[in-house]
From TrEMBL:
The lineage of its organism: Bacteria, Bacillati, Actinomycetota, Actinomycetes, Kitasatosporales. CDD domains: TrwB_TraG_TraD_VirD4. It comes from Streptomyces cyanogenus. Keywords: ATP-binding, Membrane, Nucleotide-binding, Transmembrane, Transmembrane helix. This is DNA translocase SftA. Residues 548-568 are annotated as: Disordered. ATP binds at residues 285-292. InterPro entries: FtsK/SpoIIIE/SftA (IPR050206), FtsK_dom (IPR002543), P-loop_NTPase (IPR027417). It comes from the Bacteria.
Length: 685
């Protein structure tokens, strides 16, 4: 059943129309009496004033002292009335003071001279009804529901300290009431309304998130008060599949719905026609707030589009995204693989920007993903170049706090500042985007945010201050309402920023549909253009494969070999576990003696053979090739220590060879001290 609430004029929503007026008793006389009751107090006050004047004359008619006292009392009462009206409107304050001044002056004169002396009786008979009628007229206008200015009694606003504010005619929509608000000039600002939102919610018996204020961009004292009395998000909505399978990534991505039932959408690429900028996205929320399902909503929408590549790093080994992994263009499980992905994104940005500029694109648009058959977008003047199109690229870093700890708090700063012009969107997901985890420069370069429930103290890390002032409070949810969120992003109306939404839920039965979507993306999704593929391969080498069928189990390691007739297989048809490189060793041959350069095992010193300089260069080159074949494109001294132990080599020469290889162009330094990126052999050549 819909929840009811009462506005400042006493109207209850949803509106109900009674068949008979309550209290009428069904007769004309009773009806008239019922309608006249609210207008009787001013007339009763006029009658009481006349009685007081007559009684005062009987008691103090001949007292000079009483005259002084009555005059002082009259002045004091008028002043108190003016002072007490400070919290109400200027018109009500002035009307009240004039009424009290006139009544007290007549009472003073009547007490001293007599109520029928001179013109006093005529003043009473003419002025009393006029004053009473003035209050009746005011009451009629106040309760006139058709008044375009709203003119209500403003009981609600008086309670919350905004008595001088003028509230206009409310616009009532399904589960949404919007009322224009004009504050007292020079006395109140929009900030006063923002501070009063919690009290307004309390007066209406609603949660804080149900009351918002949208300040006017053209005025510091005008705006709209929005009240959503019923939480339509309490009913869970499940994901039923992508909203636009085969569409363009430039079209809106549907990830949930708002509290009034409208769709919750977000855009990643920009649109020069709509004056919308491309964006990066921060997904932030505490443990249990629904980040995983929010990511699934956005990720499934991305994978369902025909002109986008998705690169994902997830240190949790794709625990939540395993069904979608086959459809991703590149996936990394954290550690060195993520280091390579970060460096690869940095490398593709200038290459993609150069291509877009050469083809006349100031920013990525869907036409850039098609074959370039338009002479207006050609790298060859005067004719269509026919170049392969460039899909949009989304670089997603899940559980980014892990990556930031390993690579430094500014690991994404360069990407966030430069990627948008290259048709690249960065998505960063973490629990707490505080400034001790993510640099302020990176945070400032992430224009969009999906803010889920969090600790109340962390609201300022996720949402802009203006959105919080307008009524957005993800800290009120914590982890009690998974999926509830606020979305701030280009393309969304600013008055939507403080409106809560909820992302779709992904039950277990959605897994087969996600697997089908991944299969569709694998067959129909975009493949990397030559520019992007060349740039990423120059950095990642074999670590980047692009969209391809799932790989078969590796066959390079040790395996069982069948050896017929061997005395050691006991006739079972299976031999020993033998590495191919050891297959030719004769177990009867004596071991070789010490060779020049071998270490003597002395306590406290490293053991292992120390190769000559020439041999060291050759061995180090072989080591780099081995790492490159394995797809490990970021290495450090620790990785070579393990390699030295496996090959019985001394370790002291590794650091020097790292520096020499960097000078030769085979290694490039990364953001992390002591870590180096392998430049693929072909690129180095």
């Amino acid at each position: 059943m819909a929840r009811k609430w009462t506005d400042q004029d006493g109207r209850t929503y949803p509106l109900t129309i009674p068949t008979t007026d309550p209290g009428t008793g069904g007769t004309v006389r009773a009806y008239l009496l019922h309608r006249a009751k609210p207008h009787l107090p001013p007339w009763l006050a006029v009658g009481a004033t006349g009685v007081v004047g007559a009684l005062g004359n009987w008691r103090w008619g001949d007292s000079a002292a009483a005259g002084v006292g009555l005059t002082l009392a009259s002045v004091t009462l008028t002043g108190v009335t003016w002072w007490a009206g400070k919290s109400t409107t200027q018109q009500r304050r002035l009307h009240s003071a004039i009424t009290v001044a006139a009544a007290s002056a007549w009472v003073t004169a009547a007490c001293l001279a007599g109520p029928t002396t001179g013109p006093l009786d005529d003043l009473f008979l003419m002025g009393g009804p006029v004053v009473a009628l003035s209050w009746n007229v005011r009451m009629v206008l106040r309760h006139n529901d058709t008044d375009p200015q709203g003119g209500g009694d403003k009981g609600l606003l008086e309670k919350v300290g905004l008595a001088r504010a003028q509230i206009g005619q409310a616009k009532v929509q399904p589960n949404r009431v919007t009322a224009p608000l004009a504050l007292e000039p020079g006395e109140q600002t929009n900030d006063d309304v923002s501070k009063a939102l919690a009290r307004i919610a309390s007066a209406l018996d609603l949660p804080v998130s149900a009351v918002r204020y949208h300040p006017s961009p053209d005025s510091s004292r005008r705006g709209e008060l929005v009240i959503v009395p019923e939480d339509m998000l309490a009913e869970l909505a499940e994901w039923e599949g992508p909203s636009n399978l085969g569409g363009s990534i430039a079209e809106p991505l549907v990830i949930g719905r708002y509290d009034d039932g409208s769709l919750l959408v977000i855009w990643l690429p920009g649109d020069p026609e709509a004056k919308r900028n491309s964006t990066h996205v921060l997904i932030a929320g505490g443990t249990g707030s629904g980040k995983g399902e929010t990511a699934l909503n956005l990720m499934t929408e991305i994978l369902s589009r025909r002109d986008v590549l998705l690169w994902v790093s997830d240190p949790k080994a794709f625990q939540d995204f395993a069904p979608l992994r086959p459809g991703m263009d590149w996936s990394a499980e954290g550690g060195a693989d993520t280091e390579v992905m970060v460096e690869a994104v940095k490398a593709v940005i200038p290459a993609r920007t150069r291509w877009l500029g050469a083809h006349g694109y100031r920013q990525w648009i869907p036409a850039a993903a098609d074959t370039q058959n338009d002479p207006a977008h050609s790298c060859q003047a005067g004719r269509a170049c026919g170049c392969t199109g460039m899909p949009f690229l989304v670089a997603w870093f899940e559980e980014a706090a892990n990556t930031l700890r390993n690579l430094g708090d500014d690991a994404f700063t360069g990407i966030a500042q430069e990627a948008r012009s290259a048709g690249v969107s960065l998505i960063v997901s973490l629990q707490r985007p505080s400034y001790d985890q993510m640099s302020t420069s990176t945070r400032a370069s992430l224009p969009s945010v999906i803010a889920l429930g969090c600790d109340p103290r962390d609201e300022g890390f996720s949402l802009p201050e203006a959105v919080i002032d307008a009524g957005a409070h993800p800290g009120a949810w914590g982890n009690r309402r998974p999926g509830y969120c606020y979305v701030v992003s280009p393309g969304i109306s600013e008055d939507r920023y403080p409106s809560p939404g909820r992302t779709f839920a992904f039950p277990a039965r959605a897994v087969p549909l996600m697997e089908q979507l991944a299969a569709w993306a694998l067959r129909q999704g975009a493949t990397a253009d030559p520019v992007t593929a060349g740039a990423v391969t120059a950095v990642a080498g074999r670590a980047y494969t692009g969209r391809a069928p799932a790989s078969t189990p590796a066959t390079d390691g040790p395996r069982l070999t069948a050896v017929q007739g061997d005395d050691m297989n006991d006739g079972q048809g299976y031999g020993l576990l033998v590495d191919p490189e050891d297959a030719g060793i004769d177990p009867e041959v004596e071991l070789p003696g010490d060779q020049e350069g071998d270490d003597a095992p002395i306590f406290g010193q490293e053991t292992g053979r120390k190769p000559s300089p020439k041999e060291a260069r050759e061995l180090f080159a072989l080591a780099l090739e081995e790492f490159e074949r394995a797809g490990q494109m970021v290495v450090g001294p620790k990785d070579f220590m393990d390699w030295c132990d496996r090959n019985n080599l001394g370790r002291s020469w590794v650091s020097k060879r790292l520096k020499d290889a960097a000078l030769e162009g085979r290694l490039e330094p990364t953001n992390t001290t002591g870590r180096w990126r392998i430049v693929p052999a072909l690129a180095a050549a």
